[in-house]
Target: Nicotinamide riboside transporter PnuC
Amino acid sequence: MQEIIDFFLQPYAEATTLDIILEITAALFGVLSVLFAKRGNILVFPTGIISTGIYIYITYVVGYIGDFTINIYYTAMSVYGWILWSNIAQEDQLKISWSETKDWLWTIGIFLFTMAFVIGVYIYFDKFEDWTNYFDVLTTGLAFGSMWLMAKKKVENWLGWIITNIISAPLYFAKGLGFTGIQFIIFLILAVQGYQLWKKAVGKSKVA
Model:
């Protein structure tokens, strides 16, 4: 048990109090954001922006290029999604739905382009130094595609998050960001619940 505790706390031995507070705050707002997303509540975006804004700083400081890129994209897509979900014209309001062929083409295109871009950045800065970098490239691509589907209120966004969270949780523990690792375990649970809720929401709309 002590070994597990040491594994979790050791990376924070040289961290400042401010760094720890920032990571905890970012993780808490991240969980809040996913809770709102699960309910289809527009507050997913402002809470998400707070979380990703802090993570932009954290990942820049520790040098995680993929994660840094992800959080810039998350922030931009949160603004985009906020605008889409804020449409006040009832007939034009975005509704939860299944992805169509064009949505999958866009998602696959975003996924592949994102991975190619992040690989290019890693090579340019000569940063392929650890096995976690390769998983970082994969999760960046998955996250970009999933975030786009979420902004469009597509049910399948949750499947992308489930895969992303399964990979990311142990990855963040390995990177020494334990609080963030715990956040992604919570994200995984919420993503499974979110998928079930959004599936039901689509079914109800069809019946209506």
In short: Residues 17-207 form one domain. The first helix runs from residue 2 to 9.
